[in-house]
Amino acid sequence: MGSDEAKVVAAVDFGTHGTGFAWTVRTPLNDDPLTRRVQFFTRFPGRQLDSAKNLTAILVTDDGDTVAWGHEARARWVEALAKRETEGLGYAYAFKTALKSGGSMADLPITGGFVDRCDRGLIRELVTAYLKEIRELATAEIKRMTYTEREVRWCITVPAIWDDEDKAVLRRLAVDAGFPGDPERLLLAIEPEAAALYCHLRMPDAASGPHRRARLPCTSTASGPWWSTAAAARSTSRRTSRTATPVRPSRCARSASPPVGGWVRNTSTRPSSTRRSATASDRRP
Description:
Oligomer: single chain
Order of helices and strands: EEEEEEHEEHEHEHEHHE
């Protein structure tokens, strides 16, 4: 399936502390950033309050089975420590940092049990196990809208400091976790580019004076639903007032749909990060 045939784009923000996902349907309405509607998932297990991010943590057995992931993994590991029942269990948090080639000890994750923080091979297995959990959850949500896995194009965020080797490792681990092996169906988005695009599309003070509108021109192809869904997923926990400097669009940005502008009202209200319930318009016609 080519990229033009995909009906849904889903983005996973695989972060050091937290991980979340968002998705949107490819429709004429969603081609415009002003009317685009992005779905967020906020009901992660083990967390009392809704949040667009789950903890990047995992608890596994020495046989390689996943016991729990996210906030639930941390809670169960703390309980196991309190009861002194940690035998055969391994825990890891912030393990994404260990994927960086040549990383220092400070870059390595927090681990417990049989997990050796210096065992990069084991850490990679944990990354695959975690990505499998987030993919299965995202796929289940998308299937509720009657779409199939073959109709989804995926995007995963990566740090700007990662080189091509680091990105290739993550891609292999993602494929092992069940993501598509086709590079046209699995794109990698550089984190600061996604954040900069979100600021570009959602900048509130675009006009001088109240009740005025101003057009924010988007000169790259990054305004399409493929790229801005990743931007929305990335922005849910990283809203910032820093000025974004121009960046060279990545391959993910260059492969997005044709550029469009968007009308933005002059308002000081920050964009809401709450989850919008899926409506009938998000379902398959």
